[in-house]
Amino acid sequence: MPAPEIITFGCRLNAFESEIIRRAAGEAGLGDAVIVNTCAVTAEAERQARQAIRRARREHPAARIIVTGCAATLAPELYATMPEVDQVLDNQAKLRVESYRTLPLTPTLSPQAGRGSAPAPKAWEGEGQPRARAYLQVQQGCDHRCTFCIIPYARGPSRSVPAEAIIAQARDMVAGGVREIVLTGVDLTAYGVDLPGRPSLGTLARRLLGEMPELPRLRLSSLDPSEIDEALWALFADEPRLMPHLHLSLQAGDDLVLKRMKRRHSRAQAIDTVRRARALRPEIAVGADLIAGFPTEDAAMFRNSLDLVAECRIAFLHVFPYSPRPGTPAARMPAVAPEIVRERAALLRAAGAAALGAELRSRVGTVGDVLIERPGLGRAGFYAAVDCPPDIVGIQSMRFTGIAGGKLVGAPA
To answer: Distance between CA atoms of 319 and 289, rounded to whole angstroms?
Structure first.
C-alpha cells in the first residue's frame, strides 16, 4: 500500500504536526492519499496551498485529497467546496488516527480545545527514517491578540504539555537516534502559565537537560522578547548544550508600529534582549521575524525596521510581506500599497542576506561542533548550515574553512 504524501505549509509547529499526521494516517491504514497541511499566516500561504491542492489532483487523479491546518480550520467551507478536495480536517482532528479511518466528503470539525494540558504526540520520524534533529511541541495556542494575527483563532488558547510528558517523549526521541531537540510552540515563552506552579520555559529546559544527560543538544524556536524568563537567561549563560541561537518574534523595529501591532515589547527592549544574549554567550547568533508593510507604516517607520537588522546583526531573518487577515483589527487599518509592501520586503531580505554573509565570514577559521543531518550537510550550534564531507556522521568538531552557497564549509578539526 502506498504511503500518503504530506504537503506542509507554514511554521515549525506545522512541520512537527505533519509528522504526527504521517504516523496517524499510517496507523489508520490510509493508502493512496495527499494530505495538505495549510497555513493561514498570510494570503500568499493560502494561495500556495490552493495551488498545491489543484496540482495534487492533476498529479494524483485517483488519490484522496485531504486538507487540514490553520487555513482549513478557519474556513473549512472554502476548501470543502473545492472540487479537488475529498475531506477537510481541523487542527484537532488532524492529529487523531480515527480521522483517517472514515473519510466523508464534508468537513470534519472538532470543538476548539479549552484550557488544560496540550497533548504530547510522538513525531520525530519521517518516511520511516530516524532524524538527527527533531521538533518537540511543548505548547499550543496563544492568549495574545496581535492585531495582524489570525492564528489564535485557529489554534485556540495557550495550553502547555506537562514536563513529565515532554521528558518521556524526549527520551524516546533520543533512543530513536535524535541528537538535537528543538522545543517549539505557537507562543513558546508562554509555556507553563496554565500548569500547576506556573513553571517557566527556562525551568522546563533546565529540568529536561538535567534529567537527560544523554541529550547532546537542545534548541529553542521563536521567543517573545518580552517573556524570556530569568531561568532561561541563566541557562543560556551556564549550559553549553543549549544552543547559542536566539530567534526572536520582533515583527517590527518601530515603536509606533509595534504599538499598533499590539506587541508587548519596544524597539529598545528588542535591542537590549540581543545585547544581553551576546553578553552571556558571545558566540550566539540571532534570528528574527519581521513584517514588511504593516498598515500605516511610512518610510521613516520602515527605516527603523530596516536599521534594526544591521544594529542587531540579525543573520537568520524571516520576512513576511504584510497580508490582511479578515477579522483582525489590522485589516481595518489604512493599508500600504502592495507594490511598496513588495519593495520593502525585498529590502529587508537583502539586509538579512548581508547580515548572514557577515555572520558566516566572522566564523571562517573558527572551530565548532556540527550535527550531521544528512550525508554532506550539517548544522552548527549557532544554526548555520554547514557543507561537510559525506562520510561524517553524528556530532563532529569541525573547522569552518570557507563559505559556499550561503553555507559554511567544514572540515574535521
So the answer is: 6
**What does each of the 413 residues of the chain score in pLDDT, given as a tens digit?**
567 889 998 777 888 888 888 888 888 888 788 999 998 877 778 888 899 899 989 998 888 899 998 888 888 888 888 889 988 998 888 888 888 875 544 444 443 444 445 555 444 443 334 579 989 999 988 999 999 988 888 788 899 999 999 999 999 999 999 999 999 998 999 999 999 999 999 999 999 999 999 999 999 999 999 999 999 999 999 999 999 999 999 999 999 999 999 999 999 999 999 999 999 999 999 999 999 999 999 999 999 999 999 999 999 999 999 988 888 999 999 999 999 999 999 999 999 999 999 999 999 999 999 999 999 999 999 999 999 999 999 999 999 999 999 999 999 99
Give the strand pairing for 180-184 and 217-220.
parallel
Domains 5-108 and 125-363 share a fold: no
Burial class of residue 105 in the structure, from the number of CB atoms within 10 Å of its CB (0-12 exposed, 13-18 middle, 19+ buried): exposed
Q: What is the SS3 assignment for 223?
A: strand
Torsion of CA 205, 172, 384, 278, to 10 degrees: 10
Domain boundaries, the chain: 5-108, 125-363, 367-412
Amino acid at site 205: A
Give backbone dihedrals phi and psi of 47, rounded to 5 degrees, phi first: -60, -45
What does DSSP say about strands 367-374 and 377-380: parallel, antiparallel, or unpaired?
A: antiparallel
- Per the listing, cell 552571556 goes with 280
Within 10 angstroms of residue 164's Cβ, the number of other Cβ atoms is 11
Q: Cβ-count burial of 198 within 10 angstroms (0-12 exposed, 13-18 middle, 19+ buried)?
A: exposed
End-to-end CA distance of the chain: 46
C-alpha–C-alpha distance, residues 90 and 74, integer Å: 8
Q: State which H helix or E strand residue 173 sits in.
A: helix 163-175
Query: Scanning the structure block, which residue is given the C-alpha cell 507553563?
Result: 192
- DSSP 3-state helix, strand, coil percentages of the chain (rounded to 5)? 40, 25, 40
pTM above 0.70, yes or no: yes
> Looking at the domain 5-108, which fold is it?
Rossmann fold (3.40.50)
The answer regarding whether domain 125-363 maps to CATH 3.80.30.20 reads yes
d(CA 378, CA 134): 14
Phi/psi of residue 201, nearest 5 degrees: -60, -40
Cα–Cα distance, 388 to 407 (Å, whole number):
10
Kindly state the DSSP code that residue 194 receives in the 8-state scheme: T
